[in-house]
Every structure is written in structure tokens, then in C-alpha cells.
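We treat protein structure as text, and this decision shapes the records that our systems exchange. We quote a single record here, exactly as it is kept in our systems:
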Amino acid sequence: MSVPSNFDEFLDGIWKQNPIFVMVLGMCPTLAVTVSAVNSISMGLATTFVLAASCLLVSILRSAIPKQVRIASYIVIIATFVTVVDYAIQAISLDLYEALGAYIKLIVANCILLGRAEAHAAKNPPLPATLNAFGMGLGFTLGLLAIGSVREVLGAGKLFGLSLFGPHFQPWVVMVLPPGGFFVLAAWLIVFAAFRHINIKRNTQLGGVQS
């Protein structure tokens, strides 16, 4: 079995193991904060920072952390970086802080972070662990942005706060309500699954031709 390169480690979370569209993880913030593109990017970047920083530290300390308390240690590390992000967002923009609400603090409970710390960072050197975590965070951010953009465009006729359709546009109110998150997520899951199916089918055909 070939050892994945650092670039493969980075790309893994964007496509093959995308947290939202493949692994279907982190659904709480995915459905709750994606009413606008700004909120989506903000939550995605906050999660990416915590994910990359915590996985880097877990990887550095992997030999020093006793196995008996490794999960508790990972949670403490993650919670520390979540606190940093919480205070940073509060200092940068109170409006954004209020829009994201309790979901900033709930990054601690996001299973993506603990899963990466336990399954990857604790078993790999700092560089691959950090690149993999950063790729996962970027994949999570892109997933949130894909959902948030659709909901903001259809639900408010805007994108990043800029009007797209003029004053006569009739917003789809359902898109800014909780059911809208489920509808858009389901649509993106179908699209993502279709692309993966086409890619697998194409690779299978190419493999048959080469053999």
C-alpha cells in the first residue's frame, strides 16, 4: 500500500472524505448557521482554525499523552482553541458573534474535531496531521458555503448581503427557516453523490480499457 503524500492528505477532506457531503458529520452547525454566506464562511473558518491547531498540538504531544486519558486530553486541547476563537469573534464583530450564537462554543462537541484527533493526528507526524486537518476544515467550510449561498440567494435574494434580483423578487421564506436547511442539504448530497458515482464509473471503465 502506497503512503499518501502531503498533498493527498490535504485533498482528502475536500473530496474523498468531505465532512458534510460524504461523511455527513457536523450537521448541527451545518443546518443552523447556514442562513447566509457570511455566517457559513465564518463558522467554517473558525472550525478550520480549531481543527488545524488542535490536530497539530495533538500530533506534537501524541507520545506524551497517556492512552488512558487521551480523549479527555483531546477535548481540553480543542476547548482551549475554541475559547480563543470565541473571544476573537466577539472582539472582531458583535453582530457576527450574536448571529453564530452558541454554535461557536459547540465546536467543542463537533465530532469532526475529536474524530480527526483520535483517528489521524494521534497517529501521524505534525505536518501530515495538520494538512489533513486543514483539508478537512476547508472541505467543511466549502460545504457550509455551498449550503449557505443557496439559502441566502433563494431566501433573501442576496449573496454576501448584496441584492441580486432587485426589489420585485419574492423570497422563498422557507429557505431561511429550518426546513430550508434540510432541503438544500439533501439537494447537495444528491449532486455530490451523482458526481462521485460518475467518477467511479469513469475510473472503472478506464481500468477495464487499460487491462
